[in-house]
Input
Amino acid sequence: MSKIGFIGLGIMGRPMAGHLLDAGHELVTVKRGTLDATLAEKGMRELDSPRAVAEQAEVVITMVPDTPDVELVLFGENGVVEGLKPGTLVIDMSSIAPIATQGFAKRIHEAGGEYVDAPVSGGEGGAINAALTIMVGATQEGFERARPILEVMGKTITHIGGHGAGQTCKVANQIVVALTIEAVAEGLLFASKAGADVAKVRESLLGGLAQSKILDVHGERMIKRTFDPGFKIKLHQKDLNLALEGARSLNLALPGTANAQQLFQACVAHGGENWDHAGILRALEALADHEVGS
Output
């Protein structure tokens, strides 16, 4: 069992940390408001800073919103790097910029640690059920050290390549997810506007080539109009920004990604930055002047 510092106890971080505690690991975190009662009951302890967390941990896991947040936790004042012990394993499970990730890995290595980028897919449900897909960028040694810990939180763990490769895979994942959510929304909107029973349309589509987890999970959200997050639109926007910035640097056109980003932006303009990303339906409904199921 390991002494693990876990920084970032949000919608997904909380259940991920819970699984590590259930597996017998000792966990510490940075004090941010009131610690979740379940984690406290399982023995998680709070410390004053990322530096203090690193001083007590053999493994440090970060699960925070964006690239600047990871940089602040790792390299800011009283950051992880200031308390890093030789050989400490740093696993970043956030979804951030691949190029920045390579720089972070270099700085952690120079400080005597081992860096692994391990972003996840599967949403809140995957985190709760320890069924996340985890995409890993690391040296072979780093991957082998991280794998037993990742296996506690995830079901499909793939070593994609060197540092930054995990984040590149996650960007690709977010492109596919965004465009598929948009496709499901357009399909259900078309069926509804044409007068069909959208629940029966979804049921039928799940038996054919259009079947997907997104049609299953997010299609149901759209029909039931349950837009409380799982995964917030503002976070998916951040991921698509990474995709579009990367595409510009690669001289690559991603027209579908750009369109999905515009639809997310329309949601934000209507106060929807914290809707679940299935809420992209609402932007399409506004263009059609029609609500699914009405």
Summary: Strands lie at 3-7, 26-30, 45-47, 59-62, 89-92, 114-117, 120-121, 132-137, 154-161. The two ends are 54 Å apart (CA to CA). The longest strand covers residues 154-161. The chain has 14 helices and nine strands.
